[in-house]
Every structure is written in C-alpha cells, then in structure tokens.
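Q: Given only this backbone (441 positions), what sequence would you predict?
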C-alpha cells in the first residue's frame, strides 16, 4: 500500500530541507544558505503514530529563478508533489514576516485545495512567537512555531500531521529488495535512466551539466518486487567543483555507493572514457560492490563500435572491474532499461550466494593442482590447509595457509579469477582473506 504524501512547500530559503531533516531526525536533504539548492523531489517515510507512516516530500522553492535556467523543471516537480499530496506543510520564515512570494505560494495552494498546515520556521526562542500574528493574513490558520535548525517544535508538527491524516496513514511498506545506486560523471544520462525505470518524470532531466544536486531515492516495482533506485549528482574532479553545494552532492554520491547493494556505473558512449569514470570505477572496486557497467547513449555510438569491441575496451580501461557485466542502453528511448534492472538483480543474488565448504575445497584443490603458489626462498613449501566462505555481500573466502608470504598479489589475482570461473558468483567481486595457521596455544 502506498503512503499518503505530505509535501513541504514554500518560497526559497525558508528552511524546507532543514525541516525535512529535523522531522525524520536524519540528514536526508542538502541544507545550504544558497537559495534554490533543492531541485528534485526528495522523499522519506515519516512515522506519525505508533506504526503509521506518511511519505514526506521536500520540494524546490516556489518562485525561484534557477541559476541554470531550470525554473520550469523545478516548478513542474513542485506541481507533481502537490498533485500527489494528501496534505501540505506550508513553510514560512517566522523572522521575516509575510513577503510577496509567501502570498504567491498561499494563492497557489488555495487552487490545489489540499489540507495545509502553516509552519513558521526559524523561531529559535519562545519570545519570538509574538511575531507570528501577521501570518494569519495568509488564511491558513494558526502557524506552528518551529526551529528546524534546533529541532524545536517538530514533535508538534508530527502530531498535527497524524491528526490531519488520521486513518489515512499506513503501515510502512515492505523494504525494498535491492538498492541500486546510479552513478557517473555529469550529463551521462543518469536521471534519464531513473525516469525511464520509474515510468514518470521523477527527477529533473536537462542538458545542463550538474542538474542533479542531491541523492534522490525512487522506489519502483518490477515483477512484484520493490527496488530503490538512487539517483546521484554527477561527479567531476574535485578541483573543478564550483561551490559547497557541488561538494555536498559529490559526498552524497560516494555515500550512495556505500549504502547500495548494487551500483550502476553509467558511461556516456558518445565521448571517450574520462579520468572521472576511472576514478569512480576505482571507488566501486575498493568497496567490493557488485557493479553493472551501463553504456548509455548507445544510439550515438552505434555504427562506430560493436558491443563486443566496447566490452573489450572497458575491460582494458577498467581492469579492476573486468568481471562486471555490460548493458548497452538508450535511456531517452527506454532501450534496455528494464534489462538493466534484471542484470542488477542477478548481481544482487550472486553477491548473497553461499557455497558449502566441501564444494569450495574441492574446487580449490583442482585450482591448486593446475597451478600452485611459487615456493619463495626462505619460506616453507606453500600449502592451503583449509578454505571456507565466511561471508556474503561480497562473497568472502578465507584460506588458512602454512606461510602467507608465498601467496603474493599475483597469485591472489590468479586464485580470484579461477574461483570466479568455478563458483556461482562469476560477475561480482570476491574478497579473499589469507590467514596463517595458528599454533595450538
């Protein structure tokens, strides 16, 4: 069952994102003094009763003139949120009083005719509440005084939401089966891919590089299974970042890789592989995340290269991800986007696979018989005494050996490649732990 939507709206820089973070007690949305930071809809479940939830949705500032010319896109996202909303939190700056833009927001909300709660933010002390009398003129009843920055008054907001939507709030939906983070450099087509999978304009798409600023979670359903798609800000070299907002977006993108079950690394087929692409591949490999290489805008490369040639090119360019499968997509047309999710689902299942100790040791015995580690001077003749799988996500294999010095980097890579060929996790990273035999004591 879908959750009732509570949309947070207001003019720019009144603290809408701060309020969302304060209500859910997590740093979900980017907060910055720069007006117009939020562009896309950022949503998160909010508990409003013992077991009842609503979907809290942050929106961009109404009336903002976006510096990148995305004003119409931002306003469209606000309209989507209002159309879906069961209730609205109308946020104003309690210290500044009513502004013409506040009146514009009020008039727009009246046209939607949705239940609305007026929230006066930035009231940091009780003696400031006398300033709120003017807000009655907006026609939305008693303003609730809050300080999102200091988490003051937020419990009253949650209680008011619960009363307004009593009977409409629902149990929290079943958790998503898989979290798929979509990452890549700027303008590679990540948001277009997200929208194609969601079947709606869930995030803003523009030719302007750096359109997405925050990480946006979008829940979709395929074949009766729920997935969370994580759209991330486009990555570029740190020395080229323009401001704090871009730095925050980059930080969130890296965090999204860490919290994802599977990562889709989106590559622009119309341009050569860049240093940013290679750096992202290194980050993903270092965290042992299952990864799908999504070559987007394939329609622009068709005729210039065959899929097999591009696969070989990527294997040489990203040797640390040579095992990763490839998906050739044209997100603007929806080509292969559903196959991308199915491939990601296969990687998710592989990363959670566990093999028996007997199977692992039998395969390892054959690998060692074909080629064992070299006997280095000053070491004991190398032996693997025992092997077992000690973890999943990623599959983690521990070898107990008599002398770890014979198992150098080159032989470890050989072992990993042969294990990947023989075990049921051929397309995901494997963590190999080599331990010395412990004495009886």
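A: Predicted residues:
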């Amino acid at each position: 069952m879908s959750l009732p939507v509570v949309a947070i709206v207001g003019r720019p820089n009144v603290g809408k994102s701060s309020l969302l973070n304060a209500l859910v007690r997590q740093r979900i949305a980017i907060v910055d003094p720069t007006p117009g930071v939020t562009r896309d809809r950022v949503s998160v479940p909010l508990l409003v009763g013992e077991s009842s939830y609503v979907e809290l949705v942050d929106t961009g500032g109404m009336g903002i003139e976006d510096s990148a010319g995305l004003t119409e896109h931002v306003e469209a996202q606000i309209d989507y949120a209002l159309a879906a909303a069961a209730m609205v939190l109308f946020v104003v700056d309690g210290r500044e009083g009513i502004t013409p833009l506040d009146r514009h927001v009020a008039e727009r909300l009246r046209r939607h005719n949705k239940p609305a709660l007026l929230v006066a933010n930035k009231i940091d002390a009780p003696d400031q509440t006398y300033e709120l009398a003017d807000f009655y003129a907006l026609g939305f009843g008693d303003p609730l005084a809050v300080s999102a920055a200091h988490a003051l008054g937020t419990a009253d907001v949650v209680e008011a939401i619960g009363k307004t939507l009593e009977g409409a709030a629902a149990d929290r939906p079943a958790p998503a089966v898989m979290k798929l983070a979509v990452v890549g450099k700027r303008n590679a087509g990540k948001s277009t891919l997200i929208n194609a999978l969601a079947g709606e304009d869930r995030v803003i798409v523009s030719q302007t590089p750096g359109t997405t600023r925050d990480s946006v979670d979008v829940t979709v359903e395929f074949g009766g299974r729920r997935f969370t798609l994580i759209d991330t800000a486009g990555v570029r070299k740190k020395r080229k970042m323009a401001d704090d907002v871009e730095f925050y977006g980059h930080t969130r993108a890296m965090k999204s890789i860490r919290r994802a079950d599977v990562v889709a690394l989106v590559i622009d087929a119309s341009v050569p592989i860049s240093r940013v692409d290679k750096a992202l591949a290194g980050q993903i490999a270092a965290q042992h995340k299952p990864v799908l290489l999504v070559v987007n805008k394939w329609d622009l490369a068709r005729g210039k290269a065959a899929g097999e040639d591009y696969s070989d090119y990527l294997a040489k360019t990203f040797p640390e991800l040579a095992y990763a499968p490839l998906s050739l997509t044209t997100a603007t047309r929806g080509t292969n986007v559903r196959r991308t999710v199915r491939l990601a689902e296969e990687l998710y299942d592989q990363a959670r696979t566990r093999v028996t100790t007997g199977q692992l040791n039998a395969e390892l015995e054959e690998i060692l018989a074909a080629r064992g580690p070299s006997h280095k001077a000053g070491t004991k003749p190398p032996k693997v005494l025992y092997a077992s799988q000690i973890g999943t996500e990623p599959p983690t294999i521990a070898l107990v050996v008599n002398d770890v010095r014979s198992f150098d980097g080159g032989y470890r890579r050989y072992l990993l490649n042969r294990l990947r060929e023989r075990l049921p996790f051929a397309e995901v990273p494997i963590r190999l732990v080599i331990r010395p035999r412990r004495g009886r004591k």
